[in-house]
Each structure stands twice: as structure tokens, then as C-alpha cells.
Design a protein that fits this description.
8 helices; 9% strand; mainly alpha; 3-stranded antiparallel beta sheet; 3 domains; Arc Repressor Mutant, subunit A; binds zinc ion
Length: 186
């Protein structure tokens, strides 16, 4: 792998992070080892920075650009992503697969996901009895309503009542709502 091999990839990329160049070169030079290729790329790029062919346009993470793209490098760079949490554009650190602009947004997304999971679990639990609700399609009888009232007064949950009556949780909630509207306070 010669310096000119590295240059070809850089010319093609215009704006880049070191790891992006390494990634491309490894397709052909993998047998040299990732560390070897990375060191070669690094020293080549810094030598071109020293002589002015390449400009370092961003510090964290380090982004480089060919001199003629240095001013409007953002327009030529594909590594700018939009944070799905706060909507801020940011430069993703290639190789680390980061999807969020900051640790804070990453944590936020994680909390959001775990809340969704909990909600899903509660929903599954609530409706797990629905498939065995044998009276699902039957009309509510006076007797059913009487049992419903008694169980509600005893402080039973909608799921417990649903299981007892062989009905779905939705159905029990709906009936309680109707009774409430009809003057029966729950
Ligand atoms: Zn963000």
C-alpha cells in the first residue's frame, strides 16, 4: 500500500474522518492488518495537513477536507446526521455507530424505550385474559352487572373483574363507564 493508494481514496471522499478512509482501504488491504493501515493513513494525512493539501476542519471528532472543500465542507460531508431525540445535526463518530448527538440524548432515548417496554408489558398483562374471555360476545345481564358492581365495590381491578366474568378488560371498562354515566358512581 503506497501513499498514492491512500490519496486516491481521499480525493474520492473530499471530506472524511480517518476511520472512513481506513474502512475503504481495508477492503483491498485487509491482510496488512487494521492497525498498520490506520497508522499509514494517519501519518499520510498529517503530512498532507502540514504541507497544506488537506485541512483539519473539525476537532471532535477530527474531520479533514481537501483544501478546496475546506470552507463549505459540511455540504460535501455525508457523516452529518440528525439526532432523533433533539433534532440537532451532529457529526457521528464513525466506527462507534452513535445515533445520538450527546450522551444526554442517548440516555433520553434509552429511558423512552424502557418506558415503552413497561407500557407494552402492562398492556400484555391486562389483555392476557382476553383470549379466554368466554362471555366476550354475550349481552350483559342484570346478574352480570350486579356481580360487576359488587366486585368493583370490593376494590377489585378491571382485570380481576374481567377474569371473573369471562369478559375482556375493555368490555369491563366500557360497562363501568356506562354505569358511571347512568348515575352509578364507581
Ligand atoms: Zn440530541
Amino acid at each position: 500500500m503506497r501513499k498514492s493508494d491512500i490519496w486516491i481514496v481521499i480525493e474520492d471522499s473530499k471530506v472524511f474522518q480517518l476511520s472512513e478512509i481506513v474502512e475503504v482501504l481495508l477492503k483491498e488491504w485487509e491482510f496488512l492488518g487494521k492497525n498498520y493501515v490506520r497508522n499509514k493513513v494517519q501519518s499520510a494525512v498529517y503530512s498532507w495537513v502540514t504541507c497544506g493539501l488537506i485541512v483539519k476542519v473539525n476537532d471532535d471528532p477530527p474531520v479533514f477536507a481537501l483544501k478546496k472543500y475546506a470552507d463549505d465542507w459540511k455540504e460535501h460531508y455525508s457523516g452529518i446526521k440528525t439526532c432523533p431525540v433533539c433534532g440537532t445535526p451532529f457529526i457521528s463518530k464513525r466506527g462507534e455507530q452513535d445515533r445520538y448527538c450527546s450522551k444526554k440524548c442517548y440516555e433520553k432515548a434509552k429511558t423512552r424505550r424502557s418506558k415503552e417496554k413497561t407500557r407494552e408489558r402492562v398492556k400484555n398483562y391486562l389483555h392476557s385474559a382476553d383470549s379466554t374471555a368466554v362471555n366476550k360476545y354475550k349481552e350483559w345481564t342484570e346478574k352480570d352487572i350486579e356481580i360487576l358492581r359488587k366486585l368493583k365495590e370490593k376494590g377489585k381491578s378491571c382485570r380481576e373483574i374481567a377474569t371473573e366474568l369471562g369478559r375482556t378488560v375493555y368490555s369491563v371498562r366500557w360497562k363501568l363507564q356506562r354505569l358511571k354515566e347512568a348515575g352509578y358512581a364507581s
